[in-house]
Design goal:
This protein is α/β, with parallel strands linked by helices. Helices cover 52% and strands 11% of the residues. It contains 19 helices and ten strands.
Length: 473
């Protein structure tokens, strides 16, 4: 059995996406190598390494595709959106490749630079689109045959089995099928037709027979009382290669979140995660400083234009400063571009932004949509008050309110808040206690599994959120 996810530096990655990325990388390497070898003169060929450059094109293209969300399962299955994003990605790669070639031959000039170099980029984009589309169509056909499909049964409670079925049938974790529920309490009637999950009639002493009969790949334990579990039968299944996973661990692995309603402190204590070390802290701080300086340099023209437009759009300061809660509950002053009127909270006090909020200015709506209003927080990162990646920093008023209403809310302050984060790329803007609870489930996943590898993934995926914003207010 090929399990659907592999754990890399504490974070779970889809094996199907990794395989697809590898195949597409090899195809792009071949496309780049063929085009360069047919469009480059003999003199140039002697001074230009096709293999190195083709490798760069393949890796860079895979990175761009990932940042545009092209390896998300819901995008792979939507051909129209996939083609649009693929075209955008390939144009970005083509422009970067062209500029790199021009720079190379500027540094190492040849006697004659053939004009046909100006025409191979459109041909490369077209050839790459055809090659990748054919690869993805073939990949989808193979996936439909069940190569990456996994069948699971749930042992324990009906409500958990139902919730699990609803979750994994969504866009976040396709490719699963909940075969049924083994009810240990025998309180669920098997004859009811309206049950969200079929109830399986099983001899708990011979669970392996049930598993083999339904071609099950994994057993999910959704029962709190360990004494009621058929331990010997589960051990027998485990020794036969059937994966046995706890409910909370399964949700964490497949949905990238921590299930708050069912959260058991014992699970937090004994499961992997929450690793801390001086090396990890130093690596993260280095990452924050390097990325912040690069953002500061490359976004300087954008910030200058934004500041001018804010000043022209409405009276008041360009920047908006507000107290926020940081790591270990310490407060700091956060700096953003002002996107609301100066009198936004004179009436009614602090409140979340709402859809079509009349407090937001015209320029403010645009900079919120494009996340430009977040750019001044780079200064907070350089000061060490924030990180590039982390939970969204909230105001003390909201932190106090949410801490009383939501269990474990204070645990998100175990790490520095960030400009972007795991919750921000997986859940739209939150404007209620229920939204805050959903976002906390992603924040706790990040706190538990934080690593430089996950930070890079979040940073790349933020590009997708900026280009195709969802739920911005």
């Amino acid at each position: 059995m090929i399990y659907p996810r592999v754990r890399i530096f504490g974070h779970y990655i889809s094996r199907a996406s990794l395989l697809l990325g590898l195949i597409e990388g090899l195809m792009l390497f071949a496309v780049a190598h063929i085009l360069l070898s047919t469009q480059t003169s003999a003199q140039e060929a002697g001074r230009f390494s096709f293999s190195y450059f083709s490798t760069f094109v393949a890796i860079f293209c895979a990175t761009v595709f990932f940042s545009l969300g092209l390896y998300n399962r819901n995008i792979i299955s939507n051909v129209q959106i996939m083609i649009i994003r693929m075209f955008i990605g390939l144009v970005m790669v083509a422009i970067a490749s062209y500029l790199l070639i021009k720079f190379y031959f500027y540094v190492y000039p040849v006697e004659k630079y053939p004009p046909r170099h100006y025409f191979y980029l459109p041909a490369g984009i077209a050839l790459a689109i055809v090659a990748i589309l054919c690869t993805r169509i073939l990949f989808i056909m193979i996936a439909d045959l069940g190569m990456f499909h996994q069948r699971i049964i749930v042992i324990g409670r009906l409500d958990r089995a139902s919730q699990l079925r609803q979750s994994i049938l969504g866009d976040q974790a396709e490719g699963f099928e909940v075969v049924g529920l083994v009810d240990l309490t025998e309180t669920v009637p098997e004859t009811r037709a309206d049950l969200p999950v079929p109830v399986l009639n099983a001899d708990l002493n011979d669970l392996l027979t049930l598993v083999e009969a339904h071609d099950v790949d994994e057993i999910v334990i959704a029962e709190d009382d360990a004494q009621t579990l058929p331990v010997h039968a589960l051990l027998n299944c485990k020794l036969q290669g059937i994966r046995v996973t706890g409910y909370l661990s399964f949700v964490e692995r497949e949905l990238g979140r921590v299930m708050l309603d069912e959260l058991d402190p014992n699970w937090l204590i004994f499961s992997d995660g929450f690793d801390k070390s001086l090396f990890r802290d130093a690596a993260k701080r280095t990452f924050d400083v390097v990325v912040s300086l690069l953002l500061l340099i490359f976004t300087l023209p954008i910030t200058a234009v934004a500041a001018l437009l804010i000043k022209l759009d409405s009276p008041g300061p360009v920047f908006y400063r507000q107290e926020r809660v940081g790591r270990d509950g310490r407060t700091f002053t956060l700096t953003k571009f002002r996107s609301m009127r100066v009198d936004a909270e004179q009436v009614g006090g602090p409140r979340w932004a709402a859809e079509k909020d009349d407090r937001i200015t015209e320029v403010g709506a645009f900079i919120r949509q494009t996340r430009i209003d977040e750019l001044p927080q780079i200064i907070n990162v350089l000061r060490g008050e924030m990180s590039i990646i982390g939970p969204r920093p909230e105001r003390p008023f909201f932190v106090d309110t949410l801490s009383e209403a939501i269990s474990y809310y204070g645990e998100r302050h175990r790490v520095k808040p960030g400009i972007t984060g795991w919750a921000q790329i997986n859940y739209p803007y939150g404007a209620s206690i229920e939204d805050a609870k959903e976002k906390l489930s992603y924040d706790l996943y990040y706190v538990k599994n934080a690593s430089l590898f996950l930070d890079v993934i979040i940073l790349l995926q933020t590009v997708r959120v900026i280009l195709w914003p969802s739920g911005v207010r």
